[in-house]
Amino acid sequence: MTMRLSGFHGGIEPDAHKHESSGAPIVPAPLPARLVVPLRQSARAVAECLVAPGQQVLKGERIGAPEGVLGTAVHAPTSGTVIEVAEYPMPHPSGLSTLSVVIEPDGEERWTALHPFDWRARPRNEALAHLRDCGIVGLGGATFPSHVKLGTGTGIEVLILNGAECEPWITCDDRLMRERAADILAGAQILRELIGAGRLVVGIEDNKPEAIEAMHAAAAGLDGGVAVVPVPARYPAGGEKQLIRTLTGIEIPYGRLGGEFGVQCFNVATAHAVYRAMAFGEPMVSRVVTLTGNVDRPGNVEALIGTPIEDLLALAGPRRADTDRVLMGGPMMGFALPSLTVPVLKATNCLIAASPRLFPPAPPEQACIRCGACARACPAELQPFELYWFARSKNFGKAQEYHLFDCIECGCCAYVCPAHIPLVDYYRFAKSEIWARERDKSAADQARERFEFRNWRQEREKEEKAAKLAAKAAETRARLAAEGGEAVAADAPPAAEDPKKALIAAALARAKAQQAAAAPKNTEGLSAGTQAEIDEIERRRRALGLAETADGTAAPDTPARDA
Amino acid sequence: MIHSPYLRKPVSVRQVMFTVLVALLPGIAAYVWQIGAGILVNLAIATVVALAAEAFVLRLRRRPVGLALGDLSAVVTAWLVALCFPLIVPWWVTALGVLTAIVAVKHLYGGLGQNPFNPAMAAYCAMIVAYPALMSQWPSAGQLDFSTQLALILGGSRDVDAITGATALDALRTGLRGGGTDVATLLGQEAFGALGGRGFEWVALGYLIGGLYLLARGVITWHMPVAFTAALAGIAALFWAVHPEQFASPLFHLASGGAMLAAFFIVTDPVSGATTPRGKLIFAAGAGILAWLIRNFGAYPEGVAFAVLLMNLCVPLIDMKTQPKVFGHRGDRS
């Protein structure tokens, strides 16, 4: 099937280094002495621990319950004994720890009872819940929960299967497509039905002819509507937004989801996992990991989640002396592992033993000469050097104006920069500074709101008190009016028997008349708040019998005087 | 390199600058062949002064000297200064020009990447204002042998009228302003060749070849050369079509003076020029039009240098107003 490709701007073509690891079939990794399964497996969610030390677990048994909207279940990758539930370092640049379940395998690999799920017969929401309970997350690296990505099941026209695998060195998806094409497409068909998409398009970089061939062959056996499309091998062709743009011409802006534009994208390995979950009820307990770089026997292994990374790397041969670090993910967007004791995650697609020969240290940073090579390479069509200047001068407002947050941190700009400026680091710095400031600002906003509420509450209490007083005063006034009103109305000299009371009564009458006849000019058109304040003061004065003073300072032509 | 990407393309500022130097060689070769080997002396003087000045200022600024000297940017500036100055200026004018470019125009604004003005053009303008006579004496093709050139460069006594002619642009301008003659008659004079100045038109061809090499290597994009030459030729063609006796042809303008050097090596300076695709077109077209206006109506025979400086002033505005649309924001209001 031929298809007109839209392509995307920029991109780079570094040495692919795929052939090192793509030749050999996927082999299962042997059971390690113990597994450390972090309960944080999907993006921004930690599962609730369901097991205690000493407990026996079966392979595929649930050890973590999904929590929150983005939560997915976590399962025991093999049968054995839980020996510890504790904080262990994560494979993350920070090296921070997260709650993990440590399992000592019994070596028997006994499965728990598995329940295949008939997604055609059962309601859609149950199917999504099944995926969540099988711990299905995106295996492209972001580990976004698939059941969330499937959304409401309406408004999606095209389902894209991402087999581009554009990062150099990584070949796990390539091998999976070569070896399990039919299962991948079966999973994709399930996803297509669940999401309600009409078309299914598989995008594969054209540097993987065997994978394209295998997927073509598998697609031929299916009823139509499946297109296997080779896309030009140009990093980052497999970036979700870039692949969507290449295959459909649709651009998904920053902060928006593909679903809003009628398109959704899943990784091929995710589709494979969906198939296993539906057809066999198998939870996600393993994944294919590429072992490559500075090793004797590069290749792909199917590793249990929780396998220590040093055990896995040992499968590719003894550690070479010049290996100075190990990268997780590709060299463009991956990171150097803080330690090799950390376990394999669902996000662990590739481990690269790095050496100064394979990844020479960057030459010293030089001055930007505004040559614009970065702008020509940027797939987000930004002006990276402008963002660099803004980030450098901490002009974060300008950086945002120039769409800093549209940067996908693919690293193309830093790759091509002749001045060897670590551009992406500047953007990360600017973004984290902006986030920090926003946090500070929202904290300040909260404090201000609390302060304003307190003021409002105090004001209200004051008003309530004043109203009570005013009511009391009115009562007194009514009584007084009943007693001395006659004298005032007749404009007679104050009654002798109680001069003080009479005086007050007269003043009240004048004030009343004044209020009715002529509101003072500078109090017109006041805000409700100010008016309320004035009224309240007036009431207080009346209550205290001070109205006469006010009257005394009033203009001579006040009608009250003549009344 | 602690964070990704862990891969770097094997490129460097030094390589970029080196490519520019290589691209200047055809023009320099044509210069030596047509005008004289004295230009090599000027290039050498300029290079030495530029490197010394760069090292000195970097030391003062407490910056790593070796790294910055090795990037070859000072050499590129030096060569451009030498090439746009007359061949037989005394050595100290070249040295002053280079000092102006490196110390004042480049480092006083913060060094490489920070200067708002094109260093070579600013040096040219400073020197033509300071030494108008010395900066206007151009030997024409084959007029002076190398030893005479060398003697003049080293500060020998100058009987300038006897030994130098005017440039094509200067001759045309003086002739037209004198009145009583037209372009066609003037072009028959000794200073003129088939297209532009005699001999210098070959140099212009050399720059064109070097410029195409820069384009092929991806050091420059097509925007600037195309916009500059199109604008210069376009406005020249417009007036030439109406008054051919008063205005020279577009081809003459392209082949004369610094037009080709400017189109591929001067306006394309990334530091002081516009950076967005649309901005580059506006910047270079503006320089082309201003250059023609100054050539025809200004006080100086060659207007490229002033035109470039004037457009340098507009760069922040041009860049701000021509920011390209970002991925996913094509529908947004700019």
Task: Fill in the keyword field for this structure.
heterodimer, A: 563 residues, alpha/beta, Rossmann fold, 3 domains, 6-stranded mixed β-sheet, 4-stranded antiparallel β-sheet, 18 helices, 17 strands, 39% helix, elongated, B: 334 residues, mainly alpha
Summarize the helices and strands and which ones pair or pack.
The complex is a heterodimer of chains A (563) and B (334).
Chain A: H1 19-22, E1 27-28, E2 35-38, E3 48-49, E4 56-57, E5 62-65, E6 74-75, E7 80-89, E8 97-105, H2 124-133, H3 146-149, E9 158-163, H4 172-179, H5 181-195, E10 199-205, H6 209-220, E11 226-231, H7 240-248, E12 263-267, H8 268-280, E13 286-293, E14 299-304, H9 309-314, E15 325-328, E16 335-336, E17 350-354, H10 373-377, H11 384-392, H12 396-401, H13 412-416, H14 423-489, H15 499-517, H16 528-544, H17 547-553, H18 559-562
Chain B: H1 13-34, H2 38-60, H3 65-70, H4 73-84, H5 91-106, H6 119-130, H7 146-153, H8 160-163, H9 168-178, H10 183-187, H11 200-217, H12 223-242, H13 250-255, H14 259-266, H15 277-297, H16 304-321
Please characterize this protein's 3D structure.
The complex is a heterodimer of chains A (563) and B (334). Chain A has three domains: 19-351, Rossmann fold (3-Layer(aba) Sandwich); 373-435, no CATH class; 450-519 and 527-562, no CATH class. The longest helix of chain A has 67 residues, at 423-489. In chain A, the strands form four sheets. Chain A has a six-stranded mixed β-sheet. In chain A, strands 2-8-7-4 form a four-stranded antiparallel β-sheet, with no helix packed on it. Chain A has a four-stranded parallel β-sheet with strand order 11-10-9-12, sandwiched between helices. In chain A, strand 5 (62-65) and strand 6 (74-75) form a beta hairpin. The relative contact order of chain A is 0.10. Chain A contains 18 helices and 17 strands. With 563 residues, chain A is α/β, with parallel strands linked by helices. Chain A is elongated and about 115 Å long. Chain B has 334 residues and is mostly helical. Chain B folds into two domains: 12-165, no CATH class; 167-319, no CATH class. Chain B is built from 16 helices and no strands. Chain B has helices at residues 13-34, 38-60, 65-70, 73-84, 91-106, 119-130, 146-153, 160-163, 168-178, 183-187, 200-217, 223-242, 250-255, 259-266, 277-297, 304-321. The longest helix of chain B is centred in the N-terminal third of the chain and has 23 residues, at 38-60. Chain B is globular, with a radius of gyration of 20 Å. The mean pLDDT of chain B is 89. At the A-B interface, strand 16, helix 10, helix 13 and helix 14 of A face helix 1 of B. Chain A: [4Fe-4S] cluster 2 binds at residues 378, 407, 410, 413. Chain A: It is a peripheral membrane protein. Chain A: One of its GO terms (cellular component) is plasma membrane.
